[in-house]
Amino acid sequence: MAAIGELIRKIRMDKGMTQSETSKGILSRSHLSELEHNNYYPTYDKMILLINRLGLSLEEFEDELHQKEFYFEDYYIKRTNDLSTRSKIDELATFLENEFTEEIASRSLRLYHKRLNMLGLVDYVQHKGQVNSDLYQPIFNYLLKCQNWRSYEVTLLSNAIFLAEYFVAKVLAKQFLTKFHNDWNHSVAHKIPVFFNNLSEMALMNQEPNNALNYCAISRSYTVKNHDLYNQLIGNITAHMANCILLIGKEDEIVKDLQLFIHLGYEDTADYYHNLCAELKINLNWRLRAI
Protein backbone atom coordinates (compact mmCIF):
# COMPACT_ATOMS: atom_id res chain seq x y z
CA MET A 1 0.00 0.00 0.00
CA ALA A 2 1.31 3.44 -0.87
CA ALA A 3 2.16 5.56 2.19
CA ILE A 4 -0.23 8.45 2.83
CA GLY A 5 2.53 11.07 2.82
CA GLU A 6 4.01 9.81 -0.44
CA LEU A 7 0.62 9.98 -2.12
CA ILE A 8 -0.04 13.51 -0.81
CA ARG A 9 3.29 14.61 -2.29
CA LYS A 10 2.65 12.89 -5.63
CA ILE A 11 -0.81 14.46 -6.03
CA ARG A 12 0.50 17.90 -5.01
CA MET A 13 3.30 17.74 -7.55
CA ASP A 14 0.99 16.36 -10.25
CA LYS A 15 -1.17 19.44 -9.76
CA GLY A 16 1.81 21.80 -9.79
CA MET A 17 1.13 23.09 -6.28
CA THR A 18 3.81 24.23 -3.84
CA GLN A 19 3.94 23.12 -0.21
CA SER A 20 3.04 26.65 0.85
CA GLU A 21 -0.03 26.74 -1.43
CA THR A 22 -1.17 23.33 -0.21
CA SER A 23 -0.69 23.92 3.49
CA LYS A 24 -1.87 27.55 3.77
CA GLY A 25 -4.49 27.96 6.49
CA ILE A 26 -4.44 24.25 7.34
CA LEU A 27 -1.04 23.45 8.87
CA SER A 28 2.50 24.76 8.67
CA ARG A 29 4.58 24.16 5.57
CA SER A 30 7.16 22.30 7.67
CA HIS A 31 4.46 19.95 8.98
CA LEU A 32 3.35 19.25 5.42
CA SER A 33 6.95 18.46 4.50
CA GLU A 34 7.17 16.06 7.44
CA LEU A 35 3.86 14.48 6.39
CA GLU A 36 5.12 13.95 2.85
CA HIS A 37 8.10 12.07 4.30
CA ASN A 38 5.82 10.02 6.61
CA ASN A 39 7.25 11.61 9.76
CA TYR A 40 4.10 13.47 10.82
CA TYR A 41 0.38 12.82 10.70
CA PRO A 42 -2.14 15.63 11.18
CA THR A 43 -5.53 15.35 12.85
CA TYR A 44 -8.39 13.86 10.86
CA ASP A 45 -10.05 17.22 10.16
CA LYS A 46 -6.79 18.71 8.86
CA MET A 47 -6.19 15.68 6.66
CA ILE A 48 -9.66 16.10 5.12
CA LEU A 49 -8.93 19.78 4.45
CA LEU A 50 -5.62 18.85 2.78
CA ILE A 51 -7.26 16.25 0.56
CA ASN A 52 -9.96 18.72 -0.42
CA ARG A 53 -7.33 21.37 -1.11
CA LEU A 54 -5.79 18.92 -3.58
CA GLY A 55 -9.16 18.63 -5.32
CA LEU A 56 -10.09 15.12 -4.20
CA SER A 57 -12.89 13.70 -2.11
CA LEU A 58 -11.97 11.38 0.74
CA GLU A 59 -13.35 8.42 -1.25
CA GLU A 60 -11.23 9.30 -4.30
CA PHE A 61 -8.13 9.64 -2.13
CA GLU A 62 -8.74 6.27 -0.45
CA ASP A 63 -9.30 4.61 -3.83
CA GLU A 64 -5.99 5.93 -5.11
CA LEU A 65 -4.24 5.01 -1.86
CA HIS A 66 -5.39 1.40 -2.04
CA GLN A 67 -5.51 0.89 -5.80
CA LYS A 68 -2.02 -0.56 -6.20
CA GLU A 69 -2.50 -2.98 -3.33
CA PHE A 70 -5.89 -4.09 -4.65
CA TYR A 71 -4.37 -4.86 -8.04
CA PHE A 72 -1.68 -6.87 -6.25
CA GLU A 73 -4.30 -8.79 -4.25
CA ASP A 74 -6.59 -9.31 -7.20
CA TYR A 75 -3.91 -11.17 -9.15
CA TYR A 76 -3.70 -13.87 -6.48
CA ILE A 77 -7.44 -13.92 -5.79
CA LYS A 78 -8.41 -14.18 -9.45
CA ARG A 79 -5.72 -16.74 -10.24
CA THR A 80 -6.80 -19.08 -7.45
CA ASN A 81 -10.47 -18.59 -8.35
CA ASP A 82 -9.72 -19.48 -11.96
CA LEU A 83 -7.79 -22.63 -11.08
CA SER A 84 -10.35 -23.81 -8.53
CA THR A 85 -13.32 -23.12 -10.84
CA ARG A 86 -11.67 -25.16 -13.60
CA SER A 87 -10.77 -27.91 -11.09
CA LYS A 88 -7.06 -27.54 -11.83
CA ILE A 89 -6.18 -28.81 -8.37
CA ASP A 90 -2.60 -29.85 -9.09
CA GLU A 91 -1.87 -26.48 -10.71
CA LEU A 92 -3.53 -24.76 -7.76
CA ALA A 93 -1.34 -26.67 -5.32
CA THR A 94 1.79 -25.65 -7.26
CA PHE A 95 0.66 -22.02 -7.38
CA LEU A 96 0.07 -21.97 -3.62
CA GLU A 97 3.48 -23.46 -2.96
CA ASN A 98 5.61 -21.47 -5.41
CA GLU A 99 3.85 -18.13 -5.98
CA PHE A 100 1.01 -17.51 -3.54
CA THR A 101 3.28 -18.18 -0.59
CA GLU A 102 2.72 -17.73 3.13
CA GLU A 103 4.77 -14.53 2.94
CA ILE A 104 2.50 -13.10 0.24
CA ALA A 105 -0.60 -14.11 2.22
CA SER A 106 0.67 -12.25 5.29
CA ARG A 107 0.22 -8.93 3.48
CA SER A 108 -3.52 -8.73 4.10
CA LEU A 109 -6.35 -10.51 5.87
CA ARG A 110 -8.06 -11.11 2.53
CA LEU A 111 -5.01 -12.86 1.10
CA TYR A 112 -4.46 -14.85 4.30
CA HIS A 113 -8.02 -16.19 4.28
CA LYS A 114 -7.96 -16.89 0.55
CA ARG A 115 -4.76 -18.91 0.68
CA LEU A 116 -5.93 -20.91 3.71
CA ASN A 117 -9.26 -21.61 2.01
CA MET A 118 -7.52 -22.78 -1.18
CA LEU A 119 -5.06 -24.94 0.76
CA GLY A 120 -8.13 -26.54 2.31
CA LEU A 121 -9.66 -27.17 -1.10
CA VAL A 122 -6.48 -28.86 -2.32
CA ASP A 123 -6.36 -30.91 0.87
CA TYR A 124 -10.04 -31.86 0.53
CA VAL A 125 -9.74 -33.02 -3.07
CA GLN A 126 -6.42 -34.82 -2.71
CA HIS A 127 -7.59 -36.70 0.39
CA LYS A 128 -11.11 -37.44 -0.90
CA GLY A 129 -12.95 -35.26 1.59
CA GLN A 130 -10.82 -36.14 4.61
CA VAL A 131 -9.22 -33.01 6.08
CA ASN A 132 -7.81 -31.93 9.41
CA SER A 133 -10.29 -29.18 10.26
CA ASP A 134 -7.97 -27.79 12.94
CA LEU A 135 -5.67 -26.49 10.18
CA TYR A 136 -8.44 -24.26 8.86
CA GLN A 137 -10.01 -23.24 12.17
CA PRO A 138 -8.44 -19.71 12.00
CA ILE A 139 -11.01 -18.88 9.31
CA PHE A 140 -13.87 -19.81 11.60
CA ASN A 141 -12.28 -18.21 14.66
CA TYR A 142 -12.27 -14.97 12.69
CA LEU A 143 -15.95 -15.35 11.82
CA LEU A 144 -16.90 -16.26 15.37
CA LYS A 145 -15.21 -13.21 16.88
CA CYS A 146 -16.73 -10.71 14.41
CA GLN A 147 -19.58 -8.76 15.95
CA ASN A 148 -21.33 -8.34 12.60
CA TRP A 149 -20.90 -9.94 9.19
CA ARG A 150 -20.79 -8.03 5.96
CA SER A 151 -20.44 -9.23 2.38
CA TYR A 152 -16.84 -10.32 2.90
CA GLU A 153 -17.66 -12.52 5.90
CA VAL A 154 -20.68 -14.16 4.25
CA THR A 155 -18.65 -14.94 1.14
CA LEU A 156 -15.84 -16.38 3.27
CA LEU A 157 -18.34 -18.46 5.24
CA SER A 158 -19.94 -19.85 2.10
CA ASN A 159 -16.61 -20.67 0.44
CA ALA A 160 -14.97 -22.31 3.46
CA ILE A 161 -17.79 -24.06 5.33
CA PHE A 162 -16.85 -27.48 3.90
CA LEU A 163 -13.64 -27.28 5.98
CA ALA A 164 -15.40 -26.81 9.32
CA GLU A 165 -16.26 -29.37 11.93
CA TYR A 166 -20.02 -29.90 11.92
CA PHE A 167 -20.51 -28.54 15.43
CA VAL A 168 -18.66 -25.36 14.43
CA ALA A 169 -20.78 -25.08 11.28
CA LYS A 170 -23.95 -25.28 13.38
CA VAL A 171 -22.76 -22.46 15.63
CA LEU A 172 -21.97 -20.34 12.56
CA ALA A 173 -25.46 -21.02 11.19
CA LYS A 174 -27.02 -19.68 14.37
CA GLN A 175 -24.75 -16.66 14.31
CA PHE A 176 -25.66 -15.93 10.69
CA LEU A 177 -29.19 -15.06 11.77
CA THR A 178 -27.94 -12.43 14.23
CA LYS A 179 -24.72 -11.17 12.64
CA PHE A 180 -25.77 -10.61 9.04
CA HIS A 181 -28.43 -7.94 8.73
CA ASN A 182 -28.38 -7.11 5.03
CA ASP A 183 -29.91 -10.28 3.65
CA TRP A 184 -30.71 -8.76 0.26
CA ASN A 185 -27.26 -7.62 -0.74
CA HIS A 186 -26.99 -8.66 -4.39
CA SER A 187 -23.24 -9.23 -4.12
CA VAL A 188 -23.76 -12.12 -1.67
CA ALA A 189 -27.37 -13.15 -2.30
CA HIS A 190 -26.26 -16.27 -4.20
CA LYS A 191 -23.78 -17.23 -1.47
CA ILE A 192 -26.31 -17.64 1.33
CA PRO A 193 -28.19 -20.66 -0.09
CA VAL A 194 -24.85 -22.28 -0.97
CA PHE A 195 -23.89 -22.09 2.70
CA PHE A 196 -27.18 -23.54 3.96
CA ASN A 197 -27.27 -26.24 1.28
CA ASN A 198 -23.77 -27.34 2.29
CA LEU A 199 -24.83 -27.25 5.91
CA SER A 200 -27.90 -29.40 5.20
CA GLU A 201 -25.65 -31.97 3.55
CA MET A 202 -23.36 -31.95 6.59
CA ALA A 203 -26.44 -32.52 8.77
CA LEU A 204 -27.40 -35.54 6.66
CA MET A 205 -23.90 -36.99 6.97
CA ASN A 206 -24.15 -36.54 10.74
CA GLN A 207 -27.54 -38.27 10.97
CA GLU A 208 -29.48 -35.10 11.74
CA PRO A 209 -32.22 -35.08 9.07
CA ASN A 210 -34.45 -32.65 10.98
CA ASN A 211 -31.67 -30.06 11.06
CA ALA A 212 -31.09 -30.72 7.37
CA LEU A 213 -34.74 -29.87 6.67
CA ASN A 214 -34.44 -26.64 8.67
CA TYR A 215 -31.36 -25.58 6.73
CA CYS A 216 -33.06 -26.46 3.43
CA ALA A 217 -36.01 -24.24 4.37
CA ILE A 218 -33.68 -21.28 5.00
CA SER A 219 -31.90 -21.93 1.72
CA ARG A 220 -35.20 -22.11 -0.14
CA SER A 221 -36.31 -18.73 1.21
CA TYR A 222 -33.25 -17.15 -0.40
CA THR A 223 -33.33 -19.08 -3.66
CA VAL A 224 -36.94 -18.14 -4.30
CA LYS A 225 -36.18 -14.48 -3.58
CA ASN A 226 -33.12 -14.58 -5.83
CA HIS A 227 -34.70 -16.72 -8.61
CA ASP A 228 -31.81 -19.17 -8.13
CA LEU A 229 -33.08 -22.37 -9.74
CA TYR A 230 -29.86 -24.37 -9.40
CA ASN A 231 -29.54 -23.96 -5.63
CA GLN A 232 -33.28 -24.35 -5.23
CA LEU A 233 -33.00 -27.77 -6.85
CA ILE A 234 -30.12 -28.68 -4.55
CA GLY A 235 -32.19 -27.62 -1.55
CA ASN A 236 -35.10 -29.70 -2.82
CA ILE A 237 -33.10 -32.87 -3.34
CA THR A 238 -31.40 -32.53 0.04
CA ALA A 239 -34.79 -32.09 1.71
CA HIS A 240 -36.11 -35.18 -0.08
CA MET A 241 -33.08 -37.13 1.12
CA ALA A 242 -33.73 -36.00 4.69
CA ASN A 243 -37.34 -37.18 4.42
CA CYS A 244 -36.15 -40.56 3.16
CA ILE A 245 -33.94 -40.93 6.24
CA LEU A 246 -36.99 -40.02 8.36
CA LEU A 247 -38.85 -42.83 6.52
CA ILE A 248 -41.11 -40.37 4.73
CA GLY A 249 -40.79 -41.88 1.28
CA LYS A 250 -39.49 -39.35 -1.21
CA GLU A 251 -37.38 -41.64 -3.40
CA ASP A 252 -39.50 -40.89 -6.48
CA GLU A 253 -39.02 -37.17 -5.90
CA ILE A 254 -35.25 -37.64 -5.71
CA VAL A 255 -35.29 -39.48 -9.05
CA LYS A 256 -37.25 -36.59 -10.58
CA ASP A 257 -34.69 -34.15 -9.19
CA LEU A 258 -31.80 -36.15 -10.63
CA GLN A 259 -33.48 -36.35 -14.02
CA LEU A 260 -34.07 -32.60 -13.98
CA PHE A 261 -30.40 -31.95 -13.22
CA ILE A 262 -29.46 -34.06 -16.24
CA HIS A 263 -32.04 -32.35 -18.42
CA LEU A 264 -30.58 -28.95 -17.47
CA GLY A 265 -27.04 -30.11 -18.28
CA TYR A 266 -25.81 -30.71 -14.71
CA GLU A 267 -24.84 -34.36 -15.09
CA ASP A 268 -21.95 -34.05 -12.64
CA THR A 269 -24.34 -32.69 -10.00
CA ALA A 270 -26.76 -35.54 -10.65
CA ASP A 271 -23.91 -38.04 -10.34
CA TYR A 272 -22.76 -36.47 -7.07
CA TYR A 273 -26.20 -36.66 -5.40
CA HIS A 274 -26.83 -40.13 -6.80
CA ASN A 275 -23.63 -41.28 -5.08
CA LEU A 276 -24.55 -39.39 -1.91
CA CYS A 277 -27.86 -41.27 -1.80
CA ALA A 278 -25.97 -44.55 -2.01
CA GLU A 279 -23.65 -43.43 0.80
CA LEU A 280 -26.70 -42.59 2.95
CA LYS A 281 -28.24 -45.97 2.03
CA ILE A 282 -31.17 -44.44 0.18
CA ASN A 283 -32.22 -47.02 -2.41
CA LEU A 284 -33.41 -45.34 -5.60
CA ASN A 285 -33.46 -48.32 -7.95
CA TRP A 286 -32.34 -45.92 -10.69
CA ARG A 287 -29.30 -45.67 -12.93
CA LEU A 288 -27.68 -42.41 -13.98
CA ARG A 289 -28.28 -41.85 -17.69
CA ALA A 290 -28.79 -38.99 -20.06
CA ILE A 291 -32.38 -38.30 -21.09
UniProtKB/TrEMBL annotation:
Gene3D superfamilies reported for this sequence: Tetratricopeptide repeat domain (1.25.40.10)
Protein name in the entry: XRE family transcriptional regulator
Domain of life: Bacteria
Originating species: Sporolactobacillus shoreae
SMART domains assigned to the protein according to its UniProt record, in alphabetical order: HTH_XRE (SM00530)
GO terms of molecular function: DNA binding
InterPro entries documented for this protein: Cro/C1-type_HTH (IPR001387), HTH-type_regulator_Rgg (IPR053163), Lambda_DNA-bd_dom_sf (IPR010982), TPR-like_helical_dom_sf (IPR011990), Transcription_activator_Rgg_C (IPR010057)
Pfam families: HTH_3, Rgg_C
UniProt domain HTH cro/C1-type: residue ranges: 8-61
